[in-house]
Design a protein that fits this description.
This protein is an alpha+beta fold. 13% of the residues lie in helices and 33% in strands. It has a domain at 34-121. It has a four-stranded antiparallel beta sheet, with no helix packed on it. The protein is flat. Residues 1-18 form the signal peptide.
Length: 128
């Protein structure tokens, strides 16, 4: 009994020991001119774009659900994914106008103009 009480108390203090990121923390993504904010939103959503798959900036949320960016918030200087706007679908390939597709094995692929198929994301089904 004492052990379970001690374990519960220890688990309660675990989140307090985490060091938060600074409000202006950012990481480089794709190239030097493209930075994404690492600040967490209340909605848990973040900006996502895939130029390779013809997907403009959208909000990516838990479970790979994608939503439109909240333009009202952006115009007021707030985060466009906190909260996001209308639901689009699950996975960025469900975006209207996406030029990528899901292969039968789960990989994300794109058909080139010459008919060749380019693998964008490997299949989650394949083990390495």
């Amino acid at each position: 009994m004492k052990l379970s009480i001690f374990a519960c108390a220890a688990m309660a203090f675990l989140p307090a020991s985490a060091t938060p990121l600074a409000a202006d923390a950012s990481v480089a993504a794709r190239d030097a001119e493209h930075e994404l904010s690492t600040r967490q939103t209340a909605s848990g959503c973040y900006y996502f774009a895939s130029p390779t798959c013809c997907v403009p900036t959208v909000c990516m949320c838990a479970g790979s659900r994608i939503y439109y960016v909240n333009r009202d918030n952006v115009n007021r200087g707030l985060h466009g994914c906190d909260p996001p706007w209308g639901y689009i679908g699950t996975g960025y390939t469900s975006f209207p106008g996406s030029c990528c597709r899901i292969a039968p094995d789960g990989a994300v692929e794109k058909e080139e103009e010459d008919g060749a198929v380019q693998i964008i994301e490997a299949s989650p089904m394949q083990s390495e």
